[in-house]
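Retry 2 of 3 after timeout on previous attempt. Resubmitting structure tokens to design endpoint.
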């Protein structure tokens, strides 16, 4: 068998090139399948909770009642933010994007928990619990700070999803709101070796702790081609304005060969399975609203792009409907991506643990296209 050259192996963006073995997330992009540790995402959204799914991702099994109770207790204990962390948050510009703030503060948590012996499983576990539990608290504290309001302490009687909603506005959410947001967190908790997860594993491979590794994931997630896309989807729907403007908008975008936010995915060649669930949630929420314009625009956009792009395997992804759901739940637009990050901490930490099991430093090669063996010219002769 002839050995392939680097040029033959090269794929822009490493598309389709395996970078690791994993037992965490499974995707079949042709059939539209997403599983966490072998469990279909649909079943987890219907029967499970974010805490239980987090345990599943981290420890490769569904917890017993006793194990789940202990895990929830650990999360509750870790949600509180120290005065030092709150001081750090309130020292940052109120006008900054919450994702930039979040990356900075999650990284700084490592200063307050400076363990470097990654062989210590108990300390590793506490660091992971801190990342998962404190991320919503950090986001909520920053949002309160920029509204000139005091931070709200977490309520130990509330679950992870409900606590997040409560810490943002001080109102305990309804059972429906809590369940819907819990499903949103589950849907975003893991998605195989996407850009932010790959970034997390690369950083972990240099023997960094969960704080630094997840901080790298947050920075990667912020990009508009990754997690930041959900903000752009809602901005796009608002800019379109009316259902009758959808078709000319799509035609103009396609004529200019410009991306339509929320449409298309690097892996899925059918509709993202998460998008089906979020679409149902959006329909349920908008049925209780007086104005369904944004949902109607989204549905028409899905229809028109389907007519023009489905033959190419281009369909709505998870970002397409998530922004609509978050808007009805009352979130500011620039909180959409931080919420994504709050959910994805579980997946990132699961990949961190897996990377530590048999760690090898990532060191891909490159194809050099630059000049060679140039003659140096002294500065005065240039």
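Retry 2 succeeded. Sequence:
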């Amino acid at each position: 068998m002839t050995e392939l050259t680097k040029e033959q192996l090269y794929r822009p963006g490493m598309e389709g090139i395996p970078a690791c073995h994993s037992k965490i997330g499974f995707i079949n992009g042709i059939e539209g399948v997403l599983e966490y540790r072998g469990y279909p995402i649909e079943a987890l959204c219907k029967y499970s909770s974010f805490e239980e799914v987090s345990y599943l991702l981290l420890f490769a099994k569904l917890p017993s009642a006793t194990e789940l109770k202990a895990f929830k207790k650990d999360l509750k204990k870790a949600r509180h933010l120290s005065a030092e962390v709150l001081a750090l948050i309130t020292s940052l510009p109120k006008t900054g994007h919450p994702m930039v703030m979040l990356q900075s503060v999650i990284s700084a948590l490592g200063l307050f928990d400076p363990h470097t012996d990654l062989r210590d499983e108990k300390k590793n576990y506490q660091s992971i619990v801190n990342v998962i539990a404190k991320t919503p608290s950090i986001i909520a504290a920053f949002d309160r700070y920029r509204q000139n309001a005091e931070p709200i302490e977490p309520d130990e009687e509330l679950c992870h999803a409900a606590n997040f909603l409560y810490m943002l506005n001080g109102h305990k959410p309804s059972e429906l709101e809590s369940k819907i947001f819990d499903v949103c967190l589950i849907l975003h908790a893991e998605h195989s070796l996407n850009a932010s997860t790959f970034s997390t594993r690369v950083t972990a491979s240099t023997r960094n702790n969960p704080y630094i590794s997840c901080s790298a994931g947050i920075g990667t997630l912020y990009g508009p081609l990754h997690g930041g896309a959900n903000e752009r989807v809602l901005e796009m729907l608002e800019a379109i304005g009316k259902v009758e403007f959808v078709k000319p908008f799509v035609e103009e975008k396609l004529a200019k060969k410009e991306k339509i936010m929320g449409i298309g995915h690097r892996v899925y060649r059918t509709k993202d399975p998460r998008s089906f669930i979020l679409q149902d949630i959006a329909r349920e929420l908008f049925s209780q609203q007086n104005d369904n314009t944004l949902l109607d625009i989204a549905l028409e956009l899905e229809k028109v792009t389907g007519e023009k792009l489905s033959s190419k395997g281009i369909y709505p992804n998870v970002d397409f409907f998530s922004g609509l759901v978050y808007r009805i739940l009352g979130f500011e637009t620039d909180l959409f991506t931080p919420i994504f990050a709050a959910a994805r901490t579980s997946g990132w930490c699961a990949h961190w643990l897996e990377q530590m099991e048999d760690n090898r430093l990532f060191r891909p090669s490159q194809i050099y296209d630059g000049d060679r063996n140039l003659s140096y010219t002294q500065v005065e002769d240039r």
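Attempt log closed. Residues 351 and 368 are 31 Å apart (CA to CA).
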